[in-house]
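Milestone 3.1: sequence recovery, worked example.
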């Protein structure tokens, strides 16, 4: 079913004139929320692999994806854990090596807002001037009570400063939000959407909270279910998309994990069904005059 919103795939096709796909890379980084600098074990929802179970090396990713899309170009996506949490020399070595691969036309760096010191920002600015780049910030929620419950270990103003610092350097920003975090209401989730969309972001990612094996959340509340049924999530995701201004790219509207790790919701692995249901809901709203600007 045709997407009813402005996807990052559409943006990349328009910009490069060919299909551009991300190589999900495990750069071997860790996180200050895991190594004891701030806390141990990471955010409570995070898997032991830093939510990068499908990441691997660049050659492995290219080999896999080139079979499916032989004429595509690639973005080197440093996905696992916090990919600016290392000495600058290490970052330069890893990022420059990734950019040197044939077919790689840009870089995507996932990180925490509290791991962007000035020297790293300056390097990212320099990268941004010579290649295509965006930086992903794992905010998840604007609500401090929720942030405390999930052990995020930084307050909202740190995110605000990171956005300001990146935007002032002309660097594209993609913000992650998670729907279904413990204790959050529908209204609070949508407040997070409104807040981040009011800033100078390039894109946004919506994740449905999956309870995964090995996470702290699975240990403390093993029976937790973020959404009781698919319909509830589809309703929320459609409403969230309606709140995203047309110029902001949407990178994800659900989240999936390998089934062997998934505890709940038990239906969340049905990614295609969820995506089609959301698009169907948006198409209905568009037909009824409820989808403006798309």
């Amino acid at each position: 079913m045709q997407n009813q919103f402005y996807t990052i795939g559409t943006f990349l096709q328009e910009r490069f004139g060919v299909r551009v796909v991300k190589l999900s890379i495990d750069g071997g980084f860790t996180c200050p929320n895991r190594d004891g600098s701030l806390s141990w074990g990471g955010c409570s929802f995070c898997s032991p692999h830093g939510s990068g179970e499908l990441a691997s090396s660049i050659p492995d990713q290219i080999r896999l994806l080139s079979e499916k899309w032989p004429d595509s170009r690639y973005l080197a996506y440093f996905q696992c854990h916090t990919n600016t949490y290392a000495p600058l020399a290490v970052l330069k070595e890893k990022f420059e090596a990734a950019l040197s691969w044939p077919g790689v036309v840009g870089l995507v760096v996932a990180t925490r807002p509290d791991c962007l010191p000035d020297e790293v920002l300056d390097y990212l600015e320099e990268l941004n001037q010579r290649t295509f780049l965006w930086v992903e910030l794992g905010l998840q929620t604007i609500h401090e009570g929720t942030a405390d419950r999930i052990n995020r270990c930084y307050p909202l103003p740190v995110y605000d400063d990171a956005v300001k610092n990146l935007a002032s350097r002309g660097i594209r920003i993609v913000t992650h939000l998670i729907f279904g975090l413990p204790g959050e209401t529908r209204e609070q989730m949508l407040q997070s959407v409104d807040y981040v969309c009011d800033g100078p972001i390039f894109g946004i990612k919506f994740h449905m909270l999956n309870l995964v094996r090995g996470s702290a959340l699975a240990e403390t509340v093993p029976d937790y279910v973020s959404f009781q049924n698919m319909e509830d999530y589809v309703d929320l995701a459609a409403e969230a998309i309606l709140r995203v201004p047309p110029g902001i790219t949407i990178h994800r509207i659900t989240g999936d994990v390998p089934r062997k790790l998934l505890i709940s919701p038990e239906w969340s692995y049905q990614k295609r069904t969820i995506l089609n249901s959301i698009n169907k809901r948006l198409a209905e709203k568009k037909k009824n005059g409820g989808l403006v600007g798309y």
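The chain is about 40% helix and 20% strand. The domain at 8-287 is CATH 3.80.30.30 (pyruvate-formate lyase- activating enzyme).
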